[in-house]
Amino acid sequence: MMYPDDILMIIIIFPLFFGIPLALTGINLKNLFFRKKWIPGIADTLTVWLGGFYYQLMRALYFETAGEYYEAVYPNLYHFTISFEYLFSFVLPCAVGVIGFFILSYSDPEKLPPLISAGSIAAVLIGNVMNVLYLIQIAPETYSRNSDAAFWLYLYHFNLLIISIRQIRRHVCGQVKHIQERETQFRYKSMEKLYQFLSKVSGMSVFSFLLVFPLAAVLEIILLLFGQGPDGFIKAFTMTADWTFSTQIPPPPIEYDGHYLCTVAAGGHRKLVRPLRYGTRLSHTIVVNRQLAVANAFEELLAQKLPRFHKRVRTFYNRHGYPISRLITTPLRADIVYLLMKPLEWLFLLTLYTWDVHPENRIAVQYAYRTEEEGE
User: In terms of Cα–Cα distance, which of 204, 227, 48 is closest to 122?
Assistant: First the structure.
């Protein structure tokens, strides 16, 4: 028997999130192998931008990253795939590749100056190098974690290669055809032989491959000016943990004993949950944010003023806190719990400021290095 939720998924969610990527892949393959193209410009734009949106959405749902290699992260999360310190060394070649691609995509090969055409192809080649390297960086770990989700991530990288190859081939063939139609007279025989060679293989531009090196040198100079260093491109991949090219060993994951406020402090997005420091709970290192410290200070006050009532509250929390924490498996869910707990946090603060002489001192010492049994 099919439930309404199942029908909704089949009718709306599946075509929206899975049908569109598959349809774009089919269009891109058709445009690559057949002469008659189908909305090539629109397909290219949708592939890059809409595909990129789906890509980031899929990553957020299944492979959330939460910190640099030297940071302890929540056990279900990963460290950044690209070092934030050397991020510019990765972003700049990718941006150059995207610009080169759209110059090719929206230009007529016969009307584009040869040097601009060759330079754009060189830029696309550099962008594709980054595309392939990033795919290799994430491929083994994403597949081992969730092979179904990994397929959709790989599909995006595959489509980028397809549309890049098609545009390169289109412009090389267009330039060769333009030369043949004009019956260009070359001043040097070497150039004539080179273009004869291009006419025969017309799937590769020698000029474009040669231009990769000066273009890469220009990018390297820019990166040096921005303090990325001559090996910034390499370190962008290697100064990471958990991934294919990673060379760094991360600290042990942050431990927690199943209580959801510990989970929220460790797993939520930093800008929202605002972790303050590390603390100790039951001999394990945890991340402490303001909300967690306030809640624990309130419980400590409750244990002092109303010990019997506190015991009942603690029993209830121990029983239900762990099942709730099992559901907080992504930073987005941790953020939602954090926001839902805000009214209680304010109530706890009001109680502390009403009954405690030094409420901020009590809050500040929560999860300091103590040996006795702590609360939340």
Answer: 204
